[in-house]
Predict the structure.
Amino acid sequence: MENKSEIKPHEILTAAADIGAAMLEYGAEVYRVESSIRYILEAYGAEKENIEVFAIPSSIVVTITDEKKYPITISRRITPNEIDLDKIDKLNSLSRHICKRRLSYGAINSHLEKILNSKTYPLIAEIICYGIVGFSFTIFFGGNVYDAISGTVIAAVIRILQWILYKLRSNEFFMCVLCSSFAAFIAILSVKLGISSQSDKIIIGTLMTLVPGIAITNCMRDLIMGDYMAGLSRMADALLIAMGIAVGVVSVLSLSKVFMV
Amino acid sequence: MDFFKDILIPCICITAAAFSYGVVFHIKGKKLAIATIGGLLSWTVYLLTGGIYVNDIPQYFLAAAAVSAYSEIMARITKTPVTLYLVVVILPLVPGGLLYYTMEEFVMGNGDGFLDKLMYAFGVAGSIALGVFLISTIARLITVGRGKIIALSKNKH
């Protein structure tokens, strides 16, 4: 590190790792996290060949070496948080801002604090939006209005279920099994009760809310960048979710074939 | 093709779904609008390219390529991560119905139908992934190439 700014090497290392860890927690791809950390360190005068950054979806390790060949390393264990693309966007612009302005350690921390505590959409907005997704996809896949209404209710309840299970720290596979079997069960029940007419359209429409969009997108982008470790672990994530959905739906469908026909 | 049933209503549904999906992932303001338009664009491209081939696998490929180009360009303009748009615009292309009927064939014990549908689902998923892969790689080549050219011209002066 050079003496251009009064910030100490361990401080900038901590700041860079904090920003990277926050990005990874909220669902950024590994490539972006690694390059953000690298850019921040370079902006504060670290030589390119003295920086080592390694990230996978569950961990970050950053090492810099000073002129006296003393290495400093920092590592962070990442526990995935709920996806928040707005925070990733803000963290991304913060890292650009840091590179341009060379903020002090205190300023970086206060910016970071502000971003991490920034307002997100309330739970009720998410529940309503799940309902809209359920409604529109039920219509989209060929259901009528009555099917769509059942779809709306089921999708909204799925979000509430997810919220409860998230608070109970359930694993993602079980969450998907439970949500998808719930969706399939209520859809078949609503047809039996005569509220709606096509259970298949309702199930398809509501299951679209469970599609692991972030895992699929990040998996593809990590594989493109050559981060096979990250890409494959995201792929495992996406496949487990898909398998959970399939297990839930298939078990309810086969039970319904046994009991209701 | 019935205009209302086959074009207008699906497009409205996709727009509403893309918007809500954006909210679920906490995208805000102008970026939410851009992502929603991207979602509509993906289904529009799918519809416009209809009928060029016996099945709709090339349609998925073209739609995926078009919307990932759209997200790459918009991400450069608004200086945001590409993922922000890509997550939402790919969503309308997820073949939910196909996957469901694959499962149904499995439950019914219909082996031939199951394998048939499964192969088709793999084809669709593969063509979407290929579209995204292709455009992202090209975008990366352009970005790196531009960086190199800028660096060269700086060295000369």
Observations:
- Chain B has one domain: 3-156.
- The interface with chain A takes residues 9-10, 12-14, 16-17, 19-21, 23-28, 31, 79-84, 86-88, 90-91, 94, 96-97, 100-101, 103-104, 106-108, 129, 132-133, 136-137, 140 of chain B (CB under 8 Å).
- The helical segments of chain B are 3-24, 29-48, 57-78, 83-90, 96-107, 111-156.
- Chain B has six helices and no strands.
